[in-house]
Design goal:
With 174 residues, the chain is mainly β. The protein has no helices and 18 strands. The protein has strands at residues 2-4, 10-14, 26-30, 35-37, 43-47, 55-60, 64-66, 72-74, 76-81, 85-87, 93-95, 102-107, 112-114, 120-122, 131-137, 141-143, 149-151, 164-170.
């Protein structure tokens, strides 16, 4: 199937109170010739306060998510597998978010998460146990050769747990 959402400029996730949990915005394109066209999308903003957004984009099994103009993303996991290439050619700024466990992942031989313009990665910035996981596994590849800045800001709270950015290359040819 094909979903045309080419006129969407901004996607946002906002939660109003602490303790609320939600799924955020999840976008899948699963199956050969399945396409989600978000060619007008420039910003994906998850301003979710103290709760995770669980937002993600995930093409699989021959599907495609078209986001050629996405420049800024926060609180959004990007996952690709099955030998696909997921291109985000304009993404320059990536922010994990306050209370998010986000993942940038390419899994499986020939799978590529292509982020050629990405310059800035900001990890979690709150004292809860949150992580940004960047993972190429089982032959997957992540291209982020233009990154010049990676940072994590820690805000102490009593009883807080570890957080940060984790970078993994796991398995043969990763």
């Amino acid at each position: 199937g094909r979903i045309n959402m080419a006129s969407v400029n901004t996607m946002s996730v906002t939660y109003g109170s602490q303790g609320s949990w939600g799924l955020g915005i999840q976008i899948y394109a699963d199956g050969t010739n399945s396409v989600v066209d978000l060619s007008g999308l420039q910003q994906f903003l998850a301003d979710f306060g103290y709760v995770p957004s669980d937002s993600l984009m995930q093409p699989s099994n021959g599907g495609q998510i078209l986001v050629p103009n996405l420049r800024n993303a926060s609180g959004l996991s990007l996952i690709v597998s099955g030998g696909l290439t997921f291109n985000l050619p304009a993404l320059t700024n990536y922010i994990n978010g306050i209370a998010a466990n986000c993942t940038l992942q390419a899994s499986g031989a020939g799978s590529v998460l292509n982020l050629p313009a990405l310059q800035t990665i900001i990890g979690p910035n709150w004292a809860t146990p949150n992580n940004l996981t960047i993972q190429a596994q089982q032959g997957g590849r992540i291209n982020m050769a233009s990154v010049t800045t990676m940072s994590v800001t820690y805000t102490y709270q009593s009883g807080s747990a570890a957080m940060g950015i984790q970078v993994y290359a796991n398995g043969m040819n990763s």
